[in-house]
Design a protein that fits this description.
This is Sinapine esterase. Belongs to the 'GDSL' lipolytic enzyme family. The protein is an alpha/beta fold. It contains 11 helices and 11 strands. The strands form 3 sheets. A 7-stranded mixed sheet has the order 2-3-1-4-5-6-9. Strands 7-8 form a two-stranded antiparallel ribbon. The longest helix is centred in the middle third of the chain and has 24 residues, at about 160-180. The model is unreliable at about 1-10, about 15-55 and about 280-294 (pLDDT under 50).
Length: about 290
């Protein structure tokens, strides 16, 4: 398979965000804001908005080696679209309106995937969105709303989770189109949604004895989330055992929760095609041992 199984294997982490709804011009929507690369023991980090510029990967790497480098690496793209949806929903946009953004966000993800393939990527992991209806932030924002329905088994907001599923379904259809166009490239969809739903349905099974919906660090309230009080503020409170919580600060999960997602993706059946059938390796090693969070 394209991803090297030797001791020199590498992972490339790519964070790309759309931000199309806030950019003032097409040029700004397409520019790469952060052009930098972090290299540490074979781990490569690339970040940017709306794609990855060749200069990003060439920075510090000989141009002749760049294509080979990324071709022998596992490229893990960051979970894209979350911030775009979060900013709009927190600003008071309706779920129906924000749903119209989804095709634009998906197109940006696909554009970034195509750019990485052009740069030589042969094995890419592209994640879907998390079940945002289980977020302490949204549970607080929509708390008491008349038209909100909750899943009796989880306490999550049904409409928001269906929104995330819509994003994921559209993304998977687009990724299948790329597979047809580039049969030589491994396109792996990572099902963050259902990997996370494991502990939202059964938090105690995974050691989350303080539940799955209340934030560890926040500003009080039924879900310990206050949009006017950030986690680091002096008036915020932080739990003593974050590994017993799923939610960290209302919008982000704890390291323990991300570890469950990672193990489900890396060792389990939450990828299409299944990750460990394409990349049959025993472990990913660098300082600190096995990668514990994404």
């Amino acid at each position: 398979m394209p991803w090297s199984s030797s001791l020199t294997r590498r992972m490339v982490f790519c964070w790309c965000s759309d931000w199309w709804c806030e950019a003032s011009s097409p040029a700004k929507r397409k520019r790469c804001v952060h052009d930098w690369k972090w290299e540490r023991e074979g781990v490569y980090l690339v970040t940017g908005f709306s794609g990855v510029a060749a200069i990003t990967l060439n920075n510090g790497v000989a141009a002749t080696n760049c294509k080979q480098l990324i071709g022998q690496s596992l490229v893990l793209m960051g979970e894209i679209g979350g911030n775009d949806y979060n900013h709009a929903l927190v600003a008071g946009k309706s779920i129906d309106e924000v749903e119209t953004y989804v095709p634009f966000v998906i197109n940006t993800i696909i554009s970034a995937v195509n750019e990485l393939i052009e740069l030589g990527a042969q094995t890419l992991v592209i994640p879907g969105n998390l079940p945002i209806g289980c977020s302490a932030a949204y549970l607080t924002i929509f708390y008491g709303s008349d038209n909100i329905q909750y899943d009796n088994s989880t306490g999550c907001i049904i409409t928001l989770n269906k929104f995330a599923e819509y994003h994921n379904e559209l993304l998977q259809r687009k990724l299948q189109q790329i597979r047809v166009l580039h049969p030589e490239v491994n396109i792996i969809y990572a099902d963050y949604y259902n990997a996370a739903m494991q502990f939202f349905r059964s938090p105690n099974k995974f050691g989350f004895t303080n539940g799955a919906l209340k934030a560890c660090c926040g500003g009080g309230g039924p879900f310990n989330y206050n949009p006017s009080i950030d986690c680091a503020d002096s008036s915020s409170t932080s739990c003593a055992q974050p590994d017993t919580y799923v939610n960290w600060d209302g919008l982000h999960l704890t390291e323990a929760a991300y570890k469950v997602i990672f193990k489900s993706i890396y060792e389990g059946s939450y990828t299409t095609p299944q990750f460990n059938t394409l990349c049959p390796i025993s472990t990913l090693q660098w300082p600190g041992g096995l990668l514990s969070s994404i």
